[in-house]
Amino acid sequence: MITTEHLTRKFGTLVAVDRLNIEIKEGDIYGFLGPNGAGKTTTIRMLSTLIKPTSGTACIMGFDVRKEPNRARRAIGIMPERPGFYEEMTGRKQLRFYGEFYKLPRPKLDTRIEDLMARMGLSRFIDAAIKTYSHGMRKRLAIAQALLHDPRILILDEPSTGLDPAGVQEFRELIRTLNKEGYTIFLSSHMLPEIQQLCNRVGILRRGQLVAEDTIDNLRDQLIARSSDRITVVATGINDVILENVRAIDGVASADRSEWGMMVLAEQGTSVQADVNDVLVRSGAKVTAFTTLQPTLEDVFLDITGGETDV
Fold first, then answer.
1. Would you say domain 2-222 falls under CATH 3.40.50.300?
2. pTM of the model
3. Could you give the CA distance from residue 216 to residue 200 in angstroms, rounded to a whole number?
4. Res 262: pLDDT
5. Confidence of residue 308 (pLDDT cuts 50, 70, 90)
6. Which long-range contacts link 248-252 to residues 24+ away (Cβ below 8 Å)?
7. CA-CA distance, 54 to 42, in Å (whole number)?
8. What residue spans define the domains of the chain?
9. Alpha carbons 41 and 262: distance in angstroms, whole number
10. Between 1.20.58.760, 3.30.230.10, 3.30.160.20, 3.30.70.100, what CATH number should domain 228-294 receive?
11. Contact 303, 202 (CB under 8 A)
12. How would residue 159 be classed by pLDDT, with cut points 50, 70 and 90?
């Protein structure tokens, strides 16, 4: 649905996107991550035909964004992070104005507008000026606008920014529903839990280059394979002698008392849980639970980007 090959964009001497190769398949919810300045927005602008690549290619459903921009544009619906609306227009007029760019017949366009505004819960406000819309209503209007010409691909840039928790959850459910209806979704977001909950594949960009692309589970497994286990021990009766006995176990890198018992860090490639449990029980501690903490998408992101945290 979306493919790029050595996609590059330069601004003078600055290389904003550097030989980007991605492939987004039909039915994907593809998460696009990277620190600020990594090249995410520039990539989206190229895919959206708003700016031309300096070199390389990008195709939307087989249409080259440089050679066939109009056909590529018709295949995608775009929800920018900060949608630009005409404040004095009503929701209906805004969508009608936008739909006319796609030369949609007026009867079909008007029916489509009514249906989308109803779906977004905006029927009551369809003839209200956009300047009266709340932030959440504007987000929903932006989704309606992206869907208006019935594209097969949605490019969503920070769709949940500024929403309250209920609004975030509502948007997540909407994205899942749209995906089930057959839309392929390219989702750029700084909200890592959102990416983790929604996306089947992710690409991580750093300084213009794609540094990782895979399923979240595979990226996490790769991190586990080269990381040390962090073991949370829920126990009472932990004293200094017990701590020293645990620290003396082969394969234990560190052991420290915590509010719930003990945190143990194992050396890479070792399994120490059974030995730690044995020492604790023989020393008289009362053990309630052992938990090996699994890396989150945030851990994966920090590992891959070298600690650049502003996504």
1. yes
2. 0.77
3. 7
4. 87
5. low
6. 249/275, 249/276, 249/279, 250/275, 251/275, 252/276
7. 12
8. 2-222, 228-294
9. 44
10. 3.30.70.100
11. no
12. confident
